[in-house]
Amino acid sequence: MRSVCAMTALLSVCSSTSLRSSAFIPRAPFLSLPFRRDLSCSKLRLARSISTAAAAVKARAGGGRPLMEVRAAQSGEIHVIVGPMFAGKTTALIRRVQAEAATGRTVALIKSDKDNRYGLDSAVTHDGTKMACWALPKLSSFQDKLGTEAYDKVDVIGIDEAQFFDDLYDFCCKAADHDGKIVVVAGLDGDYKRNKFGSVLDIIPLADSVTKLTARCELCGHRAFFTLRKTQETRTEFIGGADVYMPVCRQHYLDGQIVIEATRIVMEVERSTVTHALK
Fold first, then answer.
1. Are the C-beta atoms of 162 and 210 separated by less than 8 Å?
2. Is-annotated flag, keyword rRNA processing (predicted)?
């Protein structure tokens, strides 16, 4: 019996010793945690250094202004409204600018001084809605006309008949990208020949939004995407109203061009005949 107890005790001691020795099996040093911790700190320090350097560069680019002011000055927008004549572009522009004014923003409206159909001091829709505006030959003269202090306070700039401004692209870039203005542009995207008109299409890559309006075809009542010139005038810039232009659908635009071309040929033949008779 004593031998059995001694044997049991010996097995117990051996088992306990085995467990303790297995609990302390030598292992490779665990270096990953300290190594990762050091790497993380290094990355953090590097990120902070880059951020600080970037902030300094941006501050210098902004003439020494604080970083938040530089960001605020670069938060402008550009919205473009296009379509044929009588599509309501000026109406949409005025509504947008007035809505911005209702939120407390300072607004200004500009139009080309080439459009003097309803006077130079107002942008006027075809149904008679009007809003006071600046009539200018070039958009670049707006800041000088308004004054730098007043210009800095303007939040929203509306531009009507934008196709007449040669410096539209440069102005929109500066006003939105550098001055933080919301710029709303309304104009014809195409002329009576359906060719590009002015620089309106050039600013679409700059735009936050583009709205294509349509009118009603005067000949069938369907949606009108094009402007048909009813006279023989061939100048691209020829300002007029319903006496000169009408909105038409695709089919009536093509039909109208055929009629206009036939009329032109007939008139040229008649002039040639009269000239020959006079000789």
1. no
2. no
Q: Which amino acid is at 205?
A: P
Token digits of residue 108: 């200004």
167-184 confidence digits (pLDDT tens): 999 999 999 999 999 999
Q: How far is the first Cα of the chain from the last one, in angstroms, to the nearest whole number? A: 155
Of 243, 246, 241, nearest in space to 116 by CA: 241
pLDDT reported for residue 56: 47
Domain that holds residue 238: 214-279
Answer yes or no: do 166 and 199 share one domain. Answer: yes
Q: How far apart are CA 107 and CA 94, in angstroms?
A: 11
Task: State the Cα angle at 275 between 274 and 277, rounded to 5°.
Answer: 65
Same domain? 85 vs 182: yes
d(CA 171, CA 45): 41
The tokens for 101 are: 């004014």
Active-site residue, 161 included: yes
Q: How far out from the chain centre does Cα 66 lie?
A: 26
CATH value at residue 111: 3.40.50.300
pLDDT > 90 in the chain, percent? 52
Residue 178 contacts residue 208 (beta carbons within 8 Å) = no
Q: Pick the catalytic residue: 69, 77, 161, 237?
A: 161
Residue 179 neighbours by CB distance under 10 Å: 17
pLDDT band at 279 (very low <50, low <70, confident <90, very high): low
